[in-house]
Amino acid sequence: MNFMKMNLFRMFVTIFIFITIFGCTKKQETIFHIDEIFEKTATIALEEVEDMPIFIFTDFGFYTFETSFSKISKYNNTGEYELSFGKKGSGPGEIELGVAISYSENDKWLGIFDVTRFSISYFDSNGDFLEYGEPNVLGIPHFLLCKDKITVNTYTQLPKNSIKKIYIDVIAINDEKILEKDAKFIDDSELVDFYLYSIKKNNVFVLDRRETDFDIFSYNPTNKELQKNDLDKNQIKIDDKDRITSFSSIDDYLIVSIARRYQKAVCYFFDLKGNFLGIVDFGKELKIIAGAYNNYLYIYRRDKQDNQFMDIYKINE
């Protein structure tokens, strides 16, 4: 009788330990389909775009910028193409070698940085050239956004008396540096990792992108408080052939998009505190989350004929 009681006791103890261990280590719910969270509102065939573009997202839609042609095209959130402007050259409103650099939500200005003249060409929302501007940083600017009265700037700072292959990556908010990487020497084949960011609810979320890892910080411009999010990255693995392509915030989600080998795209979802929620795996489709702005999420894709599209989503109500 005592033997049976002892075995029953051991069995209950074993079951209790099993439930405790596996209850605490239960996997987070995985998001399998983008349509479970977002509602597709429009699909745009980017017929005016000939080359792989850089995207600039705005409060009314987005711009595409084709570096090879210095061409800018404008689309709205209802899925309509509006206009194209810009061309190569050295005259007013012409761009010799440009990179997308800035958008101001307050005055609707788009700025394109011209590497050859080291200046910014500003255009209004109708595509009319306005004026030239000088970047307020010593180095190579990546992108600047003015939104919710917050100005965010990322750029590569060149140390004094250094050769061009040494860089220090910097992110500044309202003209104040908040993060700065150590000086690094790179060769011609190495990819330069820099900061990505997203403005959400009067806070700025910053992704520090590195070769096989990343961290996310939150910054409050009002009290100038910088905090490192305690990210749950147990189910995330990045190898040296992966590339973090975008970082977005929409509703209560932070989204990290990663392009993997064999054209595979995976997007990791976190809440605003850094808790892992799940993934959207696009498989081998040529599809990636290009960015987000306000309540809109933009997914860029290409078909087998190399036609380009932008799918526009909104958060499910």
* Intertermini distance: 61 Å
Biggest sheet features = 9 strands, mixed
Radius of gyration: 23 Å
Arithmetic mean pLDDT: 81
Indicate the CATH topology: Neuraminidase
- For CATH, the homologous superfamily is named as TolB, C-terminal domain
Portion in strands: over 45%
Q: How many beta-strand segments?
A: 25
Low-confidence parts:
1-28
CATH-defined architecture = 6 Propeller
**In CATH, what is the class?**
Mainly Beta
Look at the helices and sheets and give the structural class. mainly beta
Proportion in helices? under 10%
What is the string of helix and strand elements? HEEEEEEEEEEEEEEEEEEEEEEEEE
Structurally, the number of domains stands at 1
Key terms for this structure?
mainly beta, 25 strands, 7% helix, globular, Neuraminidase, 317 residues, 4-stranded antiparallel sheet
